[in-house]
C-alpha cells in the first residue's frame, strides 16, 4: 500500500485516509464494521472532529484494542483555552485513547499563535508536553489563514480542500507544505460530491508531484470503501480518457461555484445554502428526481425570503456572492421544474 510521510511529524499514513465525517449518518454497528474493514485492508489513517457528533465515539468503539497501529487526527473549534481543554478531554474519552496523533484547530477564522490573547496555541503546546497530543495541526478553507499557518512555522500539518479542481493557489499550498516539511492532508477530494469519478480523483492525487499529499476520503458506504481499497491493489492511471474527464469537469466547475461546505450557515431565513446555492450543478451532475421533490421545492422557495443581510457572504471562505448565487440557482431551478 502506498504511504505518505506527513512531513516533520514523521508519521507514515496510507495514501487513502479515512474521513470519518459521514459515519455520523450510519449506525454504530455499521460504522465499526466499515472502520475495521478499512483497517484490515491497510488504511491506517482516520480523521475525525469533535464537531462530527458521534464519529469519535464510533472510532473509539472500533479501535480501542489496536490504537498504537493507527494514526488518528481530530479537531477542536474552541475559541478559548477553557473550551480547548473541554474538547480535548471529551475527544480522548470518546476515542477511548490517552493520546491523539494530530490535534487540529478546526477551520479557525484566524491562525492561532502564541500570545494572540486566546491562549489556544499555548494550550496545544501544554497538551503536547503532557503527551495528550503528539502533533499540532490546523485545518482551513481560507487561503490567507493557510498561508499564514505555513509561514508561521508553528504547525506540523495543514488540512485543506484539494482535488483535481484545485486552483493554482491550492496546488502552491501543497508545494509550500512540502518545502516547509509540513504534512498536507487533502480534504474534499471529491469536492463535496461534485466529482463522481473516484478513480480520476485518486489518480490525480497519486501523481509523483503530490507524493506529500495525504487525501482523506469521506466514506459512508461499503462500496465506497471497496472502491478506494481497489485502487491500492490496482492503482488507476491518468489515462487519456481520465484526463479528458478531468478537463471537462474543470471547465464545468471553474470559477464561482459553491463547494457545499456550509461555513456560511446558519441563515436567519432558514435557507439550506450549502445545497441551494449549488442546485444547478446538482441537477446536472446527479440524479434529478430527488432534487425536484416537493420537499426540495419548498426548500428552494425559501430563497424568496432572503433578507440580503449578507451574513453568509461574509463567512464564505471562497469569497462567493452567496445571495446572488442563490437567486441564480433558484431561477434555474424554476426553469427546470
Ligand atoms: S443574505 Fe440571505 S441567504 Fe445569506 S444569510 Fe442573509 S438571509 Fe440568508
Ligand atoms: S456559499 Fe460558500 S460557505 Fe456557503 S456552502 Fe457554498 S462555498 Fe460553502
From TrEMBL:
Identify the domain of life: Bacteria
Record keyword Coiled coil present:
no
Q: Does the keyword Electron transport apply?
A: no
UniProt cross-references to SUPFAM superfamilies, sorted A to Z:
alpha-helical ferredoxin, NAD(P)-linked oxidoreductase
The transmembrane residues are none
Q: Where is the 4Fe-4S ferredoxin-type domain?
A: 296-326
Which UniProt keywords are present, listed alphabetically?
Iron, Iron-sulfur, Metal-binding
Gene3D superfamilies from the UniProt entry: NADP-dependent oxidoreductase domain
Q: Please state what the protein is called.
A: Aldo/keto reductase
Q: Whose protein is this, by species?
A: Blautia hansenii (Ruminococcus hansenii)
Amino acid at each position: 500500500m502506498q504511504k505518505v510521510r506527513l512531513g516533520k511529524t514523521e508519521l507514515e499514513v496510507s495514501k487513502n485516509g479515512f474521513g470519518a465525517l459521514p459515519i455520523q449518518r450510519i449506525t454504530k454497528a455499521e460504522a465499526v464494521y466499515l472502520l475495521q474493514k478499512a483497517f484490515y485492508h491497510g488504511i491506517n489513517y482516520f480523521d475525525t472532529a469533535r464537531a462530527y457528533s458521534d464519529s469519535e465515539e464510533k472510532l473509539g468503539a472500533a479501535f480501542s484494542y489496536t490504537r498504537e497501529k493507527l494514526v488518528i487526527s481530530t479537531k477542536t473549534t474552541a475559541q478559548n483555552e477553557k473550551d480547548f481543554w473541554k474538547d480535548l478531554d471529551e475527544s480522548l474519552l470518546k476515542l477511548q485513547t490517552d493520546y491523539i496523533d494530530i490535534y487540529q484547530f478546526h477551520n479557525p477564522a484566524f491562525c492561532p499563535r502564541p500570545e494572540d490573547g486566546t491562549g489556544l496555541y499555548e494550550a496545544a503546546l501544554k497538551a503536547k508536553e503532557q503527551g495528550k497530543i503528539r502533533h499540532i495541526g490546523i485545518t482551513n478553507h481560507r487561503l490567507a489563514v493557510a498561508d499564514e499557518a505555513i509561514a508561521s512555522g508553528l504547525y506540523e500539518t495543514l488540512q485543506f480542500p484539494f482535488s483535481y479542481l484545485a486552483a493554482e493557489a491550492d496546488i502552491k499550498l501543497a508545494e509550500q507544505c512540502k518545502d516547509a516539511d509540513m504534512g498536507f492532508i487533502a480534504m474534499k477530494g471529491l469536492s463535496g460530491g461534485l466529482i463522481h469519478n473516484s478513480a480520476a480523483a485518486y489518480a490525480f492525487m497519486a501523481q509523483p508531484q503530490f507524493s506529500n499529499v495525504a487525501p482523506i476520503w469521506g466514506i459512508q458506504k461499503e462500496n465506497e470503501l471497496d472502491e478506494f481499497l481497489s485502487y491500492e491493489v490496482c492503482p488507476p492511471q491518468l489515462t487519456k480518457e481520465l484526463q479528458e474527464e478531468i478537463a471537462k469537469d474543470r471547465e464545468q466547475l471553474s470559477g464561482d461555484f459553491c463547494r457545499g461546505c456550509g461555513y456560511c450557515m446558519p441563515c436567519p431565513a432558514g435557507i439550506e445554502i450549502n445545497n441551494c446555492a449549488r442546485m444547478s450543478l446538482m441537477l446536472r451532475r446527479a440524479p434529478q428526481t430527488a432534487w425536484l421533490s416537493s420537499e426540495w421545492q419548498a426548500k428552494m422557495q425559501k430563497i424568496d425570503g432572503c433578507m440580503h443581510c449578507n451574513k453568509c457572504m461574509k463567512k464564505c471562505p471562497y469569497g462567493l456572492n452567496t445571495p446572488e448565487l442563490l437567486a441564480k440557482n433558484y431561477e434555474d431551478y424554476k426553469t427546470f421544474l
